[in-house]
Design brief:
By secondary structure, this protein is of the alpha/beta class. It is built from eight helices and eleven strands. Helix 3 links the parallel strand 4 and strand 5. 40% of the residues are buried.
Length: 258
Amino acid sequence: KPKKHVIGLEFAGEVVEIGKSVTRFKVGDKVFGLDGKQMGSYAQYKTVVEDVGITTMPANMSYEDVVGISNGALTAYTFLKKGNVGQGQKVLVNGASGSVGIAGVQIAKGFGAIVTGVCSTKNIELVKSFGADHVIDYTTTDFTQNGETYDLILDTVAKTPFMACENSLTPKGAYLAVAGGIKEMRQSLGNGRRGGKKVIAGTSSESQDNLIFIKGLVEAGKLKPVIDRCYPLEEIVEAHRYVDSGRKKGNVVISVSH
């Protein structure tokens, strides 16, 4: 059975009590963040350490909206930062209609990149609305066969491995394996053997500084969450079934009542 009896990484809520050494937060603060180490977010109450992935909420956002930011945006930002995303770069986001993908499109645009999103037919307009310069419908077009090359390929769905994407990378391009596993970790260790092309794998950051940066993007209007559905905690099984179906757009939120 799972070692953690109460799972759930992302959270948003109100501080109801603080430890005697806490200085960054006070009772009544509205906060959001994530805790991949301790989990425990599927509950009415949760304890967190003050100097990890938690910060005060952006102004004028609901708990339901802000909780859809932390994991997707932090993951996208972590990998794009590792890939040195910058002005004028060509970035392809594979899985551009999911929580990481939608955040990746917006963050890459914020850094001045030229962004191509890959999604299904029904999500083309959604991805365009978040700033993608080009959108590829994967049901009709294989982006690895269209002759285009990109400086960064942010793969959020793990359905197009590095070997399939290699010819779609520029000579110094990088494949950002957001959904990668052991295979991608091993490939990243061999970066020096394939010329300038790289595989970047690993885990997302839970840095408080990075989360504060993400909050700044939200407050500047450069990053918006997409909430597909909101379920009460009592229907969490159905919520997970919907996510597992692969049909969600952006985020699915669990609402915990008092």
